[in-house]
Amino acid sequence: MIPSSDLLRAAGKYATVLCVAVIVSGNGMLASRGQETSAQQPVTLPADQLDSLVAPIALYPDPLLGQTLVASTYPLEVIQLKQWLDQHKDLKDKALADAVQKEDWDPSIQALAALPDVVKQLADNIKWTTDLGNAFLAQEADVMNAVQRMRQKAQGTGNLKSTDQVKVETQVVENKSVIVIEQANPEVIYVPSYNPTVVYGAAPYYPYPPMYYPMGGLALSFGIGVAMGAFWSGGWGYGCGWGGGTINVNNNNTFVRNSNRNNGNVGNGDRGGNRGDRGNGNRGNGNRGNSKWEHNPKHRGGAPYSSNQLASKYGGTSRESGASRQSQGRQGQGPQAGVNRGGASGGDRVGNRSVGNSPSATNRGAFGGAGSGMSGSSARASSSRGSSSMGSRGGGGSRGGGGGRRGR
Predict the structure, then answer these.
(1) What is the pLDDT of residues 64-74, one digit of tens each?
(2) With contact defined as beta carbons under 8 Å apart, do 239 and 247 qualify?
């Protein structure tokens, strides 16, 4: 006869196993329901998380803020620019501007070449940059509102005020009171450097991004001023539309204008509209003055979007679909079982492009680490996806931050 104590222990173990099975099964059902929900509704970040996400750049002058937000949606090209700058340290001013225009990058990326400190921050903290860009794509107006909240915090602590480098004003834009930060000298840009904890105070819920911040008790410090001059001919390429919570594109900017022309879009007040659309009877209104920025998936480089909604909108892959394919590959269900086509990966791939010395890697959908370096020429060889399928969808200008076919 089995002792009653042994029967009790056995029953307890069985009950434990049964509970675990039920929990796992329940989690599976919840995950399945969550996937169904996410397929119907976009996932949004709460205000507190957006506040922490934008904290490192919220005090940038408006034109630089706008350009940085746009550039963050192209993380692969941020890495390529950083490596390109490391290889071309001898180029300055107009020679640098002329050389970087020859690279097939988005105008927002090209125009950052004159600001290596900003490029370094974006490239060295590529996970934050990618998260920032994804949030901006999914919640553009919410991100702009988060910037205003952080500026109000900095102003409330006495750490945001006009200096010799920047001019800070509270303005009413389309019935909204907003804090505007501009260059004190329109011809010179100073990049602010600051520790968010010092400027804003401790983050109440979501921590600030784990990145390098300047030490010391100074709230704001500034590097060496960079003359606009030959580099940003036609003015800054991007500005903040605080009233509508958008980023505006200046089509007179040399990089934006050059991108328009290279992609068949007539810009800068030229006659006619989108040349690529004339065959379809859609002449557009031309790229005159400012227009609303739109993301150009051509420059995404295969880096997955954060959700199926964004992937569907821009014709790319998502982390969600990538994770599903990975699971199928491990189970031998996919067309190429075992081949990682999405989700996270090691540092030898970024999107569908090789990083460093692994040009033949098989991960086709991952956005991995950037530490091993990027071959710009080999990466660009597979970056033409989407450039011929954008088409015109009405309105004037080109689609995306440079290289598309619709309004900027």
Answers:
(1) 999 999 999 99
(2) yes
